[in-house]
Amino acid sequence: MRILITGSTGLLAKGFEETSDGSHQLVGVHLRSYQVKDTRARHLTLDVRDAAAVDELFGRESFDAVIHAAGLAAVDHVEKHPEEGRRSNIEGTRNIARACRRCGAYMVYVSTNAVFDGAFAPYAEDASTNPIHEYGRIKLECERLTKDLAGPHAIVRPILMYGWNHSVNRPNPVTWLYEKLLRGEPVPLVGDVFENPLHSHQCGRALWKLLEKRPAGIFHLAGADRVSRWELGLKAARAFDLDASLLSRVDSSYFPSIAPRPKDTTFTTRRMEAELGMRPLTLEEGLREMKAEMGIGV
Ligand SMILES: NC(=O)c1ccc[n+]([C@@H]2O[C@H](COP(=O)([O-])OP(=O)(O)OC[C@H]3O[C@@H](n4cnc5c(N)ncnc54)[C@H](OP(=O)(O)O)[C@@H]3O)[C@@H](O)[C@H]2O)c1
């Protein structure tokens, strides 16, 4: 297969690349102009908001499948700058979905757990959506655009992801914590918001299964353990032999955020298990995989 992944410097794309069996051609596009190191994909710079540039790429190259993960995802920034968030996500999704339909490529749109309000967990794929911040509303609109404009497609909703990110990419809860604890800094962690975190490699493997089977509809992708950031921090500190006494538990009100956060968006993973044949990893298993990648034993 020839596969295009947008948002190729993100954690999701890195997990996808790293779980490739090497038998497919992978093209990745991202926004800013820097060299991506240690990669199995051919990386190009492309602004998905630019319809002409998207059409030019699809005219020049052919793709059997497209994973659309690009877009502005910083929740508080999008709340403050909704127009910027809309342009990045909505225009990008419109351009990619139309191009996929024209060339007959199977499209996977990457959505989020933020389409839920957090009051009715655990959430199955057919649960009612009710986003409580601008980013969640925009991503839900992108899901609708994908359904309306793309040809054959699926929508995945990954939940909070962790794993080793590209150096040019933002850290995630585990790599952020790891750096802080290495420096010996005290770290307050929220104990009243819950998710079932997903290791980026498991996300990658699920995406490969989707491309192989090409099912339709929505898939929730998540790990096995429902935890708060505080519980995640304790487990990560233990896994990496770092000083857990630097961690303290706080409520979400401790961090004045601009956008309200849903309290519990834990997923059920019936389709991931039954149709993709995947058992959600426990946190211990995911953290062990990260440690193995560092070559420091498991
Ligand atoms: N990370 C999570 O925990 C999580 C959880 C749930 C859902 N998701 C979803 O998963 C997807 C990927 O997330 P991520 O964490 O891997 O990525 P990320 O760190 O948010 O990075 C965003 C990616 O999109 C690219 N991008 C942004 N605007 C673009 C544009 N206009 N044109 C082309 N590329 C653009 C960025 O390129 P540059 O690096 O060049 O700026 C980067 O590669 C997102 O759709 C997000 O909503 C993520």
Describe the structure.
The chain is α/β, with parallel strands linked by helices. It folds into 2 domains: 2-163 and 196-225 and 265-286, Rossmann fold, CATH 3.40.50; 173-193 and 227-263, Alpha-Beta Complex (UDP-galactose 4-epimerase, domain 1). It is 38% helix and 17% strand. A 7-stranded parallel beta sheet has the order 3-2-1-4-5-6-11, with helices on both faces. A two-stranded parallel sheet has the order 7-10. The radius of gyration is 18 Å and the shape is globular. The chain starts with a strand and ends with a helix. NADP nicotinamide-adenine-dinucleotide phosphate binds next to helix 1, strand 2 and helix 4.
